[in-house]
Amino acid sequence: MKISGIQTHVVGSPWRNITIVRVKTDEGLEGLGEVRMLNHTDALLGYLNEAATNHILGHDPFNIEDLVQRMYRHDFARAGEIAMSAISTIEMACWDIVGKALNKPVYRLLGGAVREQIKAYANGWYTVERTPEEFHAAAKRVVAKGYRALKFDPFGAGFYELEREERLRSLSLVEAVRDAVGPDVEILIEMHGRFNPTTAIAIARELERFEPSWVEEPVPPENAAALKKAAEQINIPVATGERIHTRFDFREVIELQAADYLQADITHFGGILETKKLAAWAENYYMLMAPHNVGGPISTAAALHFAASTPNFKIQEHFNDFSDEWVKSVAPGNPEVIDGYFALPQGPGLGVTLDEEAVAQHPRQEVFFDLFADNWQRRQALRQS
Predict the structure, then answer these.
(1) From CA 301, how far away is CA 303, in angstroms rounded?
(2) Does residue 368 sit within a domain?
(3) CA distance 107 to 95
(4) Shared domain check, 44 and 31
(5) Of 55, 59, 136, 192, which one is the catalytic site residue?
(6) 318 given a catalytic annotation
(7) Has residue 384 got a pLDDT over 70?
(8) Which of 9, 55, 268, 292 is catalytic?
(9) Is 192 one of the annotated active-site residues of the chain?
């Protein structure tokens, strides 16, 4: 069997474009990959166009490790977000093909299931005004849908520091969410790399009374020493990693033991197997995996197969029950979240099937998403003229 073609589709919403990659073979089997590129979709498509000729076409999709190594090493330049995201889409599509060829779910090919269900947390649910009343009502809707964990960034457009008024406003949102969901539901606090270490430490101390399960990206992702400085004085577990794109870039975070949970995004990290390698390394340091997932149903499927087969997995992020819920229709097949958990994925390969009519109904959008813009949490069109 050989890879005979690559086809891309870009599905758009007011705040994100999702690139779906369909890998075709000369025996008629096809596999799907997917990634949400934040403001870099054209760069991804350009890379894939060149990589198809140089690495992908004619390759045996069963030889996944060899293909990944060719794409990673043979381009010579140090791989970053664009290359690793392209590799990820092709890698997960190859796993999809292999699973279909063998009539097995991908997790069965990765060592089998180590759990019977997969805990999920909701994101994208707080597309409301930044008031305690609005956040309280939105959090209630998450719990009503059955989730037992939810994540949010209450800090507006904060950068490095927060004025006292803005800090108190942010804390009031956390207080409102904790009141809405009660003591038994996990809340996860997203910081989006906004703060310098001293600010992150100070805010985390004020968050302790709300008992969050983690603070995420308390400092920008480039400086592991700064993360270590913050983590040593934060009494809440620290999560990070969505903007770290290779195992080599995780080295300092792991060796410094600067985080408790690693959040590599499978769609930006070279794919399922590469993320499994990171998980095995992290387990030596008793760190747990909580993969970042801001994509659609195909990236969610890849994450579920990873979660099913990874012992040191903690919890899975999920956007698509609250933000652009229609996006699930472009590749149906994933289990739904019931009482806070996904069931194990079913069907051969990744278990999802592309619906081209649904894709056509949601063409690419001209959007620029900026986490440091006012009211970014509304996830509405932010393209400036």
Answers:
(1) 5
(2) no
(3) 10
(4) yes
(5) 192
(6) no
(7) no
(8) 292
(9) yes
